[in-house]
């Protein structure tokens, strides 16, 4: 891979250890994937934040990296969800030891220059690249969204690579950064109208078929942005999709080369219904309903407030989101309505990266196919997959 003189000096440690270690990661990646050079990025999104997934070793690595003096690149970078509500963990019943460690991890990232905005939907709260920008994002659902809906360019980075990219402000130029790798290779004809949890079911079905490919959707009814975030999250979890196109919806659909695609699949009512049923692992009722995978938008919180207003919820309810979205929900009065009905708007964390398996819950109700896919494997708990309206039961 070609390196400029300054990049070589960065590799040689002339700009300090933190920069040298970061360049090591980026150059190794570039060499493995045949990148021609490094390219400047405008944004990073760094996963590998939860104490549940990175543990003590991860905390020590980050504190060590943050102990050196270096000059941060200055690009806009934010964090993925940690395993606790960073400010409100005690009141919400998150384990103490875990929450303290978790805050130390986030502080170390903060010292490194990464904004402590902890969310998998940074595109809702100020980390919003522009069309065709090169970026380095690692949360898989956010990668799908930023590539597909915004039209910025990133590979599915690992947490350490996105952190390294944020620190130096560059990433190796290969994969989804290049036009030729952004073409579709599977046409998906959806011959039924979709709503709510159907979009996640569609993503789950197609992700399983396309793996790491680029699906091109033809749909009957146009999705909103919440539907697109749900679809992308599911695609990226049952498969390893980083980019999809949707006719007349996503910005690069007309450049996706659909006329050259040879593989087709059809999805109808039957497949959607079967998948919705398959994602539910139990016939018990959920004891915790957990919404906001990926993190909820203000409209999703408003919708829940409308459903629960003036009623008492039987099961527990969390809506996971970022602190910024919750601040607006507070101001709009949605949080108050939800709390009065017995639910909570939970910041920073989510049902997958929080230690919910240690918090006394057994069956988790979700409206996200990604969460339905991961809660059994990452938390060892059962899930019920359905629309919000059907998940919430009242006294
Ligand atoms: C499951 C996931 O959404 C959250 C956990 O990831 P991590 O702990 O941030 O590495 C990661 C992903 O899908 O990229
Ligand atoms: S599992 Fe869902 S809510 Fe949790 S970080 Fe991933 S996309 Fe976000």
TrEMBL record:
Coiled coil feature spans: none
Pathway linked to the protein: Isoprenoid biosynthesis; isopentenyl diphosphate biosynthesis via mevalonate pathway
Protein keywords: Iron, Isoprene biosynthesis, Lyase
Single biological process term from Gene Ontology: isoprenoid biosynthetic process
Protein name stated in the entry: Phosphomevalonate dehydratase large subunit
One Pfam match: AcnX
Function: Component of a hydro-lyase that catalyzes the dehydration of mevalonate 5-phosphate (MVA5P) to form trans-anhydromevalonate 5-phosphate (tAHMP). Involved in the archaeal mevalonate (MVA) pathway, which provides fundamental precursors for isoprenoid biosynthesis, such as isopentenyl diphosphate (IPP) and dimethylallyl diphosphate (DMAPP).
Subunit structure, as described in the record: Heterodimer composed of a large subunit (PMDh-L) and a small subunit (PMDh-S).
GO molecular function: lyase activity
Highest taxon, organism lineage: Archaea
Class of this enzyme: lyase
Catalytic activity, as annotated: (R)-5-phosphomevalonate = (2E)-3-methyl-5-phosphooxypent-2-enoate + H2O
């Amino acid at each position: 891979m070609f390196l400029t003189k300054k990049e070589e000096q960065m590799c040689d440690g002339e700009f300090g250890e933190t920069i040298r270690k970061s360049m090591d990661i980026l150059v190794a990646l570039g060499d493995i994937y045949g990148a021609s050079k490094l390219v400047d990025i405008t944004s990073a999104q760094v996963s590998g934040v939860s104490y549940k997934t990175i543990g003590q070793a991860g905390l020590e690595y980050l504190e060590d990296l943050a102990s050196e003096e270096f000059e941060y690149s200055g690009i806009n970078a934010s964090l993925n969800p940690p395993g606790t509500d960073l400010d409100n963990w005690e009141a919400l019943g998150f384990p103490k030891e875990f929450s303290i460690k978790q805050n130390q991890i986030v502080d170390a990232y903060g010292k490194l220059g990464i904004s402590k905005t902890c969310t998998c939907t940074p595109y809702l709260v100020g980390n919003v690249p522009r069309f065709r920008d090169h970026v380095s994002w690692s949360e898989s659902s956010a990668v799908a969204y930023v590539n597909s809906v915004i039209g910025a360019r990133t590979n599915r980075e690992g947490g350490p690579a996105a952190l390294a990219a944020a620190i130096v402000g560059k990433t190796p130029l290969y994969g989804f950064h290049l036009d030729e790798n952004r073409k579709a290779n599977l046409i998906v004809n959806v011959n039924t109208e979709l709503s709510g949890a159907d979009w996640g079911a569609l993503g789950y079905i197609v992700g399983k078929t396309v793996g790491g490919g680029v699906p091109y959707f033809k749909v009957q009814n146009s999705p909103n942005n919440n539907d697109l975030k749900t679809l992308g999250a599911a695609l990226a979890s049952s498969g390893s999709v980083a980019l999809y196109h949707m006719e007349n919806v996503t910005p690069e659909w007309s450049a996706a080369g659909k006329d050259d695609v040879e593989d087709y699949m059809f999805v109808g009512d039957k497949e959607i219904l079967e998948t919705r049923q398959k994602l539910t692992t139990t016939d018990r009722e959920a004891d915790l309903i957990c919404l906001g995978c990926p993190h909820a938008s203000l409209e999703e919180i408003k919708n829940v407030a409308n459903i629960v207003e003036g009623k008492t919820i039987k099961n527990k309810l969390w809506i996971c989101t970022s602190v910024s979205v919750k601040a607006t929900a507070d101001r709009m009065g949605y949080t108050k309505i939800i709390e009065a009905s017995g639910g909570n708007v939970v910041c920073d964390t989510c049902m997958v990266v929080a230690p919910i398996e240690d918090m006394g819950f057994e069956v988790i109700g979700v409206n996200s196919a990604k969460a339905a896919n991961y809660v059994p494997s990452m938390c060892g708990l059962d899930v019920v997959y359905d629309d919000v309206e059907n998940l919430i039961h009242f006294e």
